[in-house]
Specification:
With 102 residues, this protein is α+β, with helices and mostly antiparallel strands. It has one domain: Nucleoside Triphosphate Pyrophosphohydrolase (Alpha-Beta Complex). It is built from 3 helices and 4 strands.
Length: 102
């Protein structure tokens, strides 16, 4: 997670706790909390088109921030443990394990 974050954003972070895991028959990913260590945010020109910093309140009210991202932000704020959570997706067969507060 630390290496991927640095490669894709130019920012060094310290890994926090596991917040959620989403998986299907085709792919999966894990979401971790992170603490900023150093670096200036920039796009890697491949995996993302831009990197921006937002206040939590701004991200939660921003219509362009995906619903799953908002769930993970809420999870980070709540400090809850993981449990299976319903998540509607375009693709069938997705499962999300996220904190019990969402």
């Amino acid at each position: 997670m630390i290496r991927e974050f640095l490669e894709e954003t130019g920012v060094t972070v310290r890994a926090g706790k596991l917040l959620g895991v989403r998986f299907s028959a085709k792919d999966w990913y894990a979401v971790f909390g992170a603490e900023y260590v150093s670096g200036e945010a920039r796009s890697d020109g491949d995996e993302n088109s831009e990197v921006v910093w937002k206040l939590v309140e701004e991200a939660l009210s921003d219509e362009t921030v995906p619903g799953l991202t908002k769930k993970m932000i809420e999870c980070a704020l709540s400090g809850g443990g993981l449990k299976e959570t319903s998540y509607n997706s375009i693709r069938e067969g997705n499962f999300l394990f996220a904190c019990d507060a969402v």
